[in-house]
Structures are given as structure tokens and as C-alpha cells.
Amino acid sequence: MEKQRILIIAADVLLGQQLDDQLRGHGFELIHCDADKCLQALSERRPDVILACTYHRRIEDCLQGVRQIRRQDRSVPIIMLTRFSSESRAIAAFRAGVDDYYKIPCPSRALLTSIGKHAGAHPVSSDRRTEAGHQSCVLPCPVIIGQSRAIQEIKAYLRRVAVTDSTVFITGETGTGKEIAAEMVHCSSSRRDRPFVRINCAAIPDELAESEIFGHEKGAFTGAVATKAGKFEQADGGSVLLDEIGDMCTFTQAKILRTIERKEVSRLGGKSTFSVDVRVIAATNRNPEVLMSEGKFRKDLFYRLNVAQVQLPPLRERKEDIPNLLQHFISNYNQKFGRQVEGFSDDALNYLLGYSWPGNVRELKNLVEVAFINMPSHHISVVDLPRAYQKKLKDTEGLPQNERDRLLATLFATNWNKSKTARQLHWSRMTVYRKMEKYRLKKNLPENTMSRTTDPGYQAAG
Q1: Tens-place pLDDT, residues 194-253
Q2: Does 338 lie in the same domain as 279?
Q3: Which domain holds residue 8?
Q4: Which helix (H) or strand (E) holds 43?
Q5: Are residues 155 and 290 in the same domain?
Q6: Buried (b) or exposed (e) across 242-251, using 16+ Cβ within 10 A?
Q7: pTM for the predicted model, two decimal places
Q8: What is the count of structural domains for the chain?
Q9: Has residue 142 been placed in a domain?
Q10: Is residue 425 within 8 Å of residue 405, measured between CB atoms?
Q11: Cβ-based burial of 58 (10 A; exposed 0-12, middle 13-18, buried ≥19)
Q12: Beta pairing partners, 7
């Protein structure tokens, strides 16, 4: 497996050496160059990721270099590291074309995770293994954040599924973490060092699906000026994620079924077939039973895919994980924006616990990012949230909560003191214990989002 190339552009020699020391031993090919030679290095060495670094207060020279790179290559990921960070500098960096942004010193784990995420999504030349959608798993892989009983059971099941080679069907609402669950399966399997290719079935037009997924031969159609390998060929030896497969047309579904059963693909316009060894993971936010009844999902494909089924719960059913998720997102955005936010105020947390979260974890993550843009102090309060959210959250304040939410909110408000909880709810202590058992509630230990746990790899958002 070919090493990922990291191009380090640092005017300061000491800074370049520090990054070299930080990344050495992680399987990278490290290339150093000055800013005036970066375009030459970009064309000659074809890096997977560029690290643009500056120790100086003025970052305009570094941003000018980023703009020059972007004029030559719009796809190569650029991670910027700077000693002097601020909100305005971060915004200027993203506008210039930076994909990620960190303040120096940057923890190795955060930097490695960012490199892994962006290198995996970067398509380079056809003679390199990192094809579009391929993620190398030499770096730590994400797991779903949460210590609720439901999430613990799902993570344990995903680890058991990973050691087999069965197909996996992941269902759940939008924003619940289906793609991360798929990554967990791949990165915990024997295929972890092989490609992980994502296919967004909802984003590929029906007329292009066959060419994208199975490839095409030169001259197969107007505009096919060269032979192209499809996603299944790119994933050979690894795993392929058929994301939002419920939005794929039934014609392409039939070809997917044939590929899974025969373990071979035929390019569009080709006369021969190619053997492929691929583990298939499918995901959808739609109900497959309803899709089959409407004739939009082939029953034979469903039963072929639905060997190991995983149903991810919506956030409203595991609100006890919200504090851990918040802390994880805050830690990430502190690194990204160079801030020192410690958490949410008690009032703000109570509002978040009372909200239904139709967008699930993704909505929660976006809310934290927006709160950072408003430049909060050490704690994010209700006034730091967007006005639209303040209205949403306050509108739910007077609505009757269900018993589980009411118990959970009171437990957090009393720091899980059972006696105080019982008094506030006018229950007995035994009633509190019985209800906690009934609703499967327990106090979660804070998750250290910047260190390894017993889960395989680095933790990431659900």
C-alpha cells in the first residue's frame, strides 16, 4: 500500500522540523518546500495533503500561497497551522480555500485525524491508491460518541459484525451517524488497510449511475475519452458504502445485486468482466419496508443486504448523550478556532435537553459551530445561540415533557443526586431508581475525546 504524501510548506525551519517529528512514524512520505517552490512541488510530487504553516502574526503571505495553490489545484486538501489565531483569521483562511485550520501547537491526534479525513476524500492520479472516496485506515478511525445503553449495545454489535464478512444494512434518521457506523465496521475489520469507498446514491443522476459505480470503457458514450474504473473496482479488497441506497433507481439496484452475488463487475461498453472482492455496507434514512411496498426498492436486494441490520436511534431517544456530544464538539472547535470554551451554561443545557432535535447529531453539531461564530466566553449561554434557535428552544419550555425527558433533565440539574431528584419530582427515591431502570438511564462518565478508549480508534461525531 503506497504511503500518503504530505507536503509541508513552512518558512520557519524549526516549525517544519517540529511537524516532521510529529508525523514521523505514522506511515507518511513527508516532503518539505519553501513557499516560492510550492507550485512546483505540487505538480511534481502530487501530495495527498498540504500543510501550510506560519509562525508570524501576519498570515497574508501564507494565505496568498494558499490562493496560488487553489488556482492550480482545487481538490488537494490544505490544512493551515498558525501560531497567532483569531476568529477573523480563521474566516479569512477558509475563504482563501483552506480545508482545516489549527492553532500551533496542534495535538498530534487532532492533526492526524484531520489528515486522515481529508486525504481519504482527495482524488489523485490514477497510479496512486488513494482514489476518490478511499480512506486509508492507518490512522485512528471514528466511533459513535455516547455512553447511553443503546449506543453501547450498538457499538458492541458493530465490533462483532466487523470481524465477519457479512453485508451490513444500517438504517436511521438523517444525522444519526450512519456513515460513521459504516466506517467503524470497515476500520475494525480485516479489510482496514484496504480502500473504503463511499457511493452517495442520492447524489448520482440515474443516467450516470452505471458509469460511476461500475466504470466505463473508452468510447462507451459521447464524452468517454478514456477508460474509467468504477467504484466497485476502486474498492477491491476493501469495503464499499452504498449510502442512501433507498434513492437509487431499481435498474441500478438490479446491477448491484448481480455484482454482490457474482462478485464481478462489467464496465459500461465492455465485453469482459472483472472479479472484485468487496464487502458491501448499505445505509438509508428511509423505511425499506415502505419503499418495497411502493415498488421503489427491490425485495431480492433488500434480503441480500439485510444480513446484519443496525438501527441507529434518533438523538431524542438518547438525550443523556448530549453532554458528551457537546464536549466533543467544543473540543474540536476549540482546536479549529483557537478558543478556550469550557462548555454550555446550565440554562442552555436544560434548553437543549428539552428540544426534540429533528436533525439529530448533525443538527447539534451545527448549532455548536454557530455558537462559536458568535464568539462566546468560557461558557456558551442561551444568548450565544442563533435567535431562531432561542425561539425554538424557548417555545418548548412550557410544553409538557414526557416522563423520561423530565426525569433526565432533573437528574442533570441535580448532578444525578437521587434524593434531590426525588424531591423535585415529588417521587420517592425508590421510584427514581425504578424509573431510571425502566428508561435505561445511568450517569455517563465524561468521554475524553482527545485520547484512545477501549473503542477501536479515535472518537468522532455521530
Answers
A1: 889 999 998 888 888 888 899 888 888 877 788 888 899 999 999 999 999 999 999 999
A2: no
A3: 4-120
A4: helix 38-45
A5: yes
A6: bbbbbbbeee
A7: 0.61
A8: 3
A9: no
A10: no
A11: exposed
A12: 31, 50
